[in-house]
């Protein structure tokens, strides 16, 4: 399956949002050419563009689906209102948003809505941007270019306060003879049948396991 995104104007400096219909069409043609394929299985809007009505975005993707260039429509980091508005025009297949043992905000509004509308969920940063691996603590320093330097949860004080969570995860991992990362991934996989952690196959190997996670059953109990 091929999944890719639109929504940023790469021709402009910085991260400039652009989900205007003409830009979406130009983006999909560029992706099809670069990927050497006739269609994209799942086409995500990378971020909601406040300057373009969601109905226009969803309508454009619906047209691309009708033309056979896209199979399914996805959203990334969209809120409840945006999801409802988009879904009313073009059925949304999947939402991508951050979710982990360390970041559970989607449970408040997003997950109930996705279940209501039968939309799949693709959590990103399932390992808490590395924190849930147990390799990061309050004394860890990041390179000056590391984005975690500006993430409040990665301040020294926050990491120290949240270290208790990591210690619990590490203790569970030791009991099951698995890694802390495997515990974090197993927790996500057990949450709902429509959850599929982002880049699961890519993250499972570095975490010390396989995509099947053979010890998943006892880990999640």
TrEMBL record:
PANTHER family with a match to the protein in the record: AFLATOXIN B1 ALDEHYDE REDUCTASE, ALDO-KETO REDUCTASE
An example Gene Ontology CC term for this record: cytoplasm
Region called Disordered, residue ranges: 201-221
Superkingdom field: Bacteria
The keyword RNA-binding belongs to this UniProt entry's keyword annotation: no
A GO molecular function held by the record: oxidoreductase activity
Encoding gene (name): iolS_4
InterPro entries cross-referenced by the UniProt entry: Aldo-Keto_reductase (IPR050791), NAD(P)_OxRdtase_dom_sf (IPR036812), NADP_OxRdtase_dom (IPR023210)
Organism, scientific name: Enterobacter cancerogenus
The protein's name: Aldo/keto reductase
Location of the NADP-dependent oxidoreductase domain: 1-192
E.C. number(s) listed in UniProt: 1.1.1.-
Keyword terms of this UniProt record: Oxidoreductase
Signal peptide annotation: none
